[in-house]
Amino acid sequence: MTDASPATAQETLAALHRMQQDDLPVHGGRTLAYVYDSGLAEVDRVGREAVAAYAGSNGLDPAAFPSLLRMENDLVGFAARLLDAPGSVVGTVTSGGTESVLLAVQAARDARPDVARPTMVLPATAHAAFHKAAHYFGVEARLVAVGADFRADVAATEAAVDDSTVLVVASAPSYAHGVVDPVTELAALAAARGVRCHVDACIGGWVLPYAARLGRTVRPWTFAVEGVTSISVDLHKYGYAPKGTSLLLHRTPELRRPQLFASAAWPGYTMLNATLQSTRSGGPTAGAWAVVRTLGDAGYERLTADVLEAVDRIVAGLADVPALRLVVAPDSTLVALATDGTCDAFTVCDEMAARGWYVQPQMSYGEQPPTIHLSVSAATLGSVEDLLAALRDSVAAAVAAGPVVVDPGIADYIRSLDPATLSDADFDGLLAASGLVGEGGEGRDGELALPERMAEVNAMLDLASPAMREALLLTFLDRLSRPDPVWPSTG
Ligand SMILES: *Cc1c(COP(=O)(O)O)cnc(C)c1O
């Protein structure tokens, strides 16, 4: 056993840079999920430098780091104007959309200690973060099927609400289909029963207000809608801020109160938190503050005009790609595409990747076939003709290849599987057959062998039940995260 030898700063940064070459690009507007690119180098620079300047600062104690408290209040104030909030509004900077959603559910639960078995009513299109909240906080998620327009079904939502309901949820817009729910009706039915209504605008909250200012039709969804009690909106999506910031706003301090936590039940400092984190890096808050300050309303309005023009041109360009259809007309910047019988969505995604474009496969859900998701960025506008050409070529290649066919015997087997009754050996065999994990061989135990092309893997996963898909991917994640016992000698 030898000690890890030190490296120079130059070597270390060069190694980081080399490793990053394997990742999806975060600039250039060709990565249409996970990252959001303004295309403005100066804005990126300001955000990065602010993160670096505050990387060591701790939002744990606002008295010790008053600049972070000030930045938080500035950001919430800016968002409050954007979201038509009343003067009573309050808010919190969180680490991301999932944390904002978790806290909205936790606050709704803890505001109702009288409800023994709390439930929340969600459109089936609500983000998976609500299922995580259900899992963490013991709030049962009651899913309501959406209408043919992929928007929440108001009557069915109303029917699902009862005395155990602590929260009604709407999306503005939904991630998978990009449409805004009928927030006015959902908030009204919640308010009539004294139930909270959370609008998840994590991905649309920084776009829709500017779209409205630009004269686009946007159905009401902000605090201007009576009965909306809280809204989540991510700065690290269409706020074009560095990763690690979202906002959760509550209409009144009383509504936020159960979200706040204090503990003096130990011998150290009294812990006092508004989020799941306690020590909280100042970097993301400063990064978001710097980007919002730099862009201002005029900057966001211009970026919104650009991204919406890109979406319009993508939608118009689909006329030349008959094998693809729009699942539903987008309400903002998210596009969902389905294929006809001549090719499959997963192969199109692989073909796009081969041409330098990342588009995100979405598995089938209920009656809906697999689809292709595009989170369009402002930076995509500059290369939208390239994107359309890549789509045409990718679809042509996918049609030429034909849809991925899973061996019918394997397909029947996968469909019949129940993760609860599967043995470990069966499971390992299936995982290997799926192509997600190699069979070990001479390398370290269970070493990963991810294929270049994912269509076959995705087609198999798509046949599995949702519970089986979850089980397979959980095992995949488990196998991925194993320590490297010899680093840093590996570089
Ligand atoms: C992205 C997203 C979330 C979760 O946000 P993270 O920042 O990935 O944790 C929640 N809801 C919607 C609608 C989203 O698009």
Key structural traits:
16 helices; alpha/beta; 13 strands; Aspartate Aminotransferase, domain 1; 12% strand; 491 residues; Aspartate Aminotransferase, domain 2; 4-stranded antiparallel beta sheet
- How many structural domains in the coordinates? 3
Q: Determine the N-to-C terminus distance.
A: 17 Å
Average pLDDT metric? 94
Helix content: 40-55%
- Run of helices and strands: HHHEHEHEHEHEHEEHEEHEEHEEHHHHH
Query: Could you give the count of β-strands?
Result: 13
> What is the number of helices?
16
Largest sheet: 7 strands, mixed
**In the CATH hierarchy, what is the superfamily of the largest domain?**
Type I PLP-dependent aspartate aminotransferase-like (Major domain)
Structural class: alpha/beta
Strand content: 5-15%
How are the strands of the largest sheet arranged? 1-7-6-5-4-2-3
Low-confidence stretches: none
Using only CA atoms, what is the Rg?
Answer: 24 Å
What is the top-level CATH class of the largest domain? Alpha Beta
Q: Which small molecules are bound?
A: pyridoxal-5'-phosphate
Q: What is the level-2 CATH architecture name of the largest domain? A: 3-Layer(aba) Sandwich
Look up the CATH topology of the largest domain.
Aspartate Aminotransferase, domain 2
User: What does the overall shape look like?
Assistant: globular
